[in-house]
Amino acid sequence: MSKKDLIDAVARECDLTKEKAGIVIDAALAHIRDSLKAGGEVRIPDFGTFKVATRKEREGRNPATGATIKIPASRVAKFTPAKGLKDALN
Question: In angstroms, rounded to a whole number, what is the distance separating the alpha carbons of residues 60 and 67?
Fold first, then answer.
């Protein structure tokens, strides 16, 4: 499902115009992004939890040359599905 498909589905379900549904989706995604940037987590019951994890600096290899390179430490977003979502999928 693309963002456009999600906007179409929200517009249909909530009896909104596609423009207003797009604003709603953009606002929700912005709040999730801002919370993660601040180091927080976002819990959505029966769906899952978005949180930030820290990756340590590590060594990698350039596949073309085989040379060893250092991959710097970074922060990444992680998603953990809730039990309700897992049950719905199985």
Answer: 8
